[in-house]
Design goal:
The protein has 288 residues and is an alpha/beta fold. 44% of the residues lie in helices and 24% in strands. The longest helix is centred in the N-terminal third of the chain and has 28 residues. The two termini are 43 Å apart.
């Protein structure tokens, strides 16, 4: 039997008329859509689409299969709605993975608020910067950062698009007079490369380097250096005046935070509720 997530992707492509538009609607990458359709065609032993430079059209087999697939999808939707209506309450355990810094700064607090709203839910939060293998690690939702949508067969939802900001204490910012050296703290990546704050800055003084975002935040809060971090990690410090932004005309990139969850037609109600809650929580922390 075909994986129903692949059938969903097929229906999305048939409706959109293109792999790119289907990927946009499903919030996955184009390569994820292509792989799903290819798996389904191998399973069925027949091509479902005719591809050329001008259009994407269903084959005769594709037209016939779409009718059955659409009916099955509608029946499953109706069944899920009936079960959710009868239960009426979200319950069970949610296993969540998040990067260490993000988990400590805001995710743990957001999960606590979620538990307050859903008293029959329990949460297991694992903090790790490693990639999550859903097939072996028994994770329901993984929160990860990246500029682009992760290229995988997992379902994904963007929680927030976040600025990368240069920050310093007010005292340190006031001392940046335009002629003195700028003390900077840089970040050591796991692969050994260095992500420099203000690359190419001729007045940079680079005497501090860390490999942990929370350690970088602590260095910045000590007043020793200027650093570059995700706004989400310093949002409270900025609101409460402990830090100020010091980009001074420099253009810094943005990053996105994603909720990843297992492939399937529809995520369980408890997962959907959590992802909705996280999206609201992240949106309240950042200014796009």
């Amino acid at each position: 039997m075909a994986r129903f997530s692949d059938v969903d992707v097929f229906l999305a492509v048939a409706s959109a008329g293109s792999f790119r538009q289907a990927a946009h609607r499903l919030e996955v990458t184009k390569s994820t859509v292509s792989r799903a359709v290819a798996r389904l065609e191998v399973h069925l032993g027949a091509p479902l689409f005719v591809r050329d430079q001008r259009a994407l059209r269903l084959t005769e087999a594709g037209l016939e299969y779409r009718a059955f697939a659409a009916a099955a999808a509608a029946a499953l939707d109706e069944g899920e709605r009936a079960v959710e209506a009868s239960s009426g309450t979200i319950r069970g355990t949610l296993r969540v993975s998040a990067p260490r810094a993000l988990g400590e700064v805001c995710v743990a607090e957001m999960l606590g608020a979620f538990l307050d709203r859903h008293p029959q839910v329990s949460v297991e939060l694992a903090l790790s910067d490693d990639l999550v293998r859903f097939s072996t690690e028994n994770v329901d939702v993984a929160i990860r950062a990246g500029r682009e949508l992760p290229d995988s067969d997992l379902s994904a939802r963007r929680l927030a698009r976040c600025r990368i900001v240069a920050v310093a204490t007010p005292e340190r910012a006031a001392a940046l007079d335009g002629s003195s050296p700028i003390p900077l703290v840089d970040f050591s990546m796991p692969d050994g490369t260095v992500r420099e704050a203000f690359p190419g800055e001729p007045r940079a003084s680079r005497r501090f380097r860390v490999n942990d975002y929370l350690a970088m935040r602590r260095v910045i809060l000590s007043g020793r250096a200027v650093g570059v971090l995700s706004e989400l990690l310093v949002a409270r410090d900025l609101r409460e005046g402990r830090l100020v932004r010091v980009e001074r005309g420099r253009t810094l990139p943005t990053a996105s935070y994603w909720a990843l969850y297992g492939p399937g037609r529809r995520a369980p109600a408890k997962v959907r509720a959590l992802v909705d809650h996280l999206a609201l929580g992240f949106a309240s922390q950042v200014t796009e």
